[in-house]
Amino acid sequence: MVTLISLIIAEAALETVPKQIASHPAVKNQAQKLGRNPREILLDKSYHHSAMLRSGLESYWKRGRPDIIHFALMEALSTPLFLKNMLKVYVHTVKNKLIIIGDNLRIPKSYFRFEGIMINLFKEKIINSPDDDNMLLELHDNITFEQFIINEVRPDKLIGLSSDGVKSSAEEIVSRNNIKNSNHIAFVVGGFPKGHFSEDTSRVFSYSFSISELELEAHVVIARILYECEKILDLHN
Amino acid sequence: MVTLISLIIAEAALETVPKQIASHPAVKNQAQKLGRNPREILLDKSYHHSAMLRSGLESYWKRGRPDIIHFALMEALSTPLFLKNMLKVYVHTVKNKLIIIGDNLRIPKSYFRFEGIMINLFKEKIINSPDDDNMLLELHDNITFEQFIINEVRPDKLIGLSSDGVKSSAEEIVSRNNIKNSNHIAFVVGGFPKGHFSEDTSRVFSYSFSISELELEAHVVIARILYECEKILDLHN
């Protein structure tokens, strides 16, 4: 039996600038610097905070954090588990968009380059490798978290990692959930700055665990869970 | 006996633009976008690659990677070990500059904000908290790695982590080096894209270990070593 592990970065604060704030000076100014149309660039609280606030953008505190997704993806894609093709990675956004990460994607650490790739992905919906034409990134619109889990991921167990979950440790979660003998375990980590998963997400979880009494950053949770998976799968021997 | 753990990001590819390439169009253009003097901005391979190459900048393949330092610092500063004040963090750069990280620093995940802070640090040499005036970041010029270790860190053991070190695992390194009963263990991770530590750095190590047969990114090595330190120190109970 082959173990498959999936990681899902859910309710990800990654989207392009919404129409509502596209004509705000901060947005137009940044779009000009990037040589892009304002609606093409990524919503980013570091640049658009006052525009987001003033326009009363819905759930604005949970949106416009591409930096969080960058760190979370970098963490997952740098692990031996991913490098050895034993991990599938997905991003599901606040706007019900699904991003499928290709097995051979090496994400750039430079934010400038990451931003360019994501802008292209939102526009083109697919990015293939220039070398061998393999899919690196694919974007699908209008798919709810539940549809995505049921139709695309189809895990045996879906484990949510959230500070309001049952207190445990990364090691316990991995050892008690029988990673080694399961067909397919999927972990869900939040891709947003604070607060908890919405009901639409959490109702799909088989279990929900918290691995620290501190509110850990998504990338730290990812690092620890994947590392424990590697240990239990004897990837280091 | 109190355990103290230090993390040093060594030969860090973090510096401001050198005089040699300050008048290159790519540098001037980027400085203008940031509203800065060309010599104030960070050397960044993502923007300055051709300028670095054409001017024959010494060891150019090991320089201009502030993104690597951003990821490495974020990894360390997001751990419970750091958040509970049990970890001291330092950056020692290719240009023999030492950056001391204050215990209360929360580094921004946004590269745009990180860049702004680092530009200010190189200019002002110190950044204090606007809230309570505590030191957040301090920069010292002209201190070699050896001087820094002997005069500032003064660890009982200095452990280098490098792909050409003795093969081990993060767990073994932490358990065999008696972290729990030592006064002060310092770990050194490289803050550069590829290759090994220079002789100036590695000759100061007590030991040198490799934790994977793959060449892991600095931030992955940091995540794993610090997590194992937390486990052995019972930080999760």
Describe the protein's architecture and organization.
The structure is a homodimer of 237-residue chains. Chain A has 237 residues and is of the alpha/beta class. Helices cover 36% and strands 22% of the residues of chain A. Chain A is built from nine helices and eight strands. Chain A has helices spanning 25-34, 45-54, 66-77, 80-83, 111-124, 145-153, 170-176, 199-202, 218-232, and strands at 4-12, 87-93, 98-101, 126-128, 135-140, 157-167, 184-190, 207-210. Chain A has an eight-stranded mixed sheet with strand order 4-5-3-2-1-7-6-8, sandwiched between helices. In chain A, helix 7 (170-176) packs across helix 9 (218-232). The first copy, chain A, is globular. The mean pLDDT of chain A is 94. Chain A binds chain B through residues 33, 44-47, 65, 67-68, 70-71, 74-75, 78-80, 83, 108-113, 169, 171, 212, 214, 216-217, 219-220, 223-224, 227, 231, 236, and chain B through 33, 44-47, 65, 67-68, 70-71, 74-75, 78-80, 83, 108-113, 169, 171, 212, 214, 216-217, 219-220, 223-224, 227, 231, 236.
Summarize the structure.
The structure is a homodimer of 237-residue chains. The first copy, chain A, is of the alpha/beta class and 237 residues long.
Q: What topology, given as strand order, has the largest sheet of chain A?
A: 4-5-3-2-1-7-6-8
Q: Quick one: overall form of chain A?
A: globular
Structural class of chain A: alpha/beta
Q: Could you give the distance between the termini of chain A?
A: 19 Å
Which chains make the largest contact?
Answer: A-B, 35 and 35 residues
Arithmetic mean of pLDDT of chain A: 94
| Helix percent band of chain A | 25-40%
Order of helices and strands of chain A: EHHHHEEHEEHEHEHEH
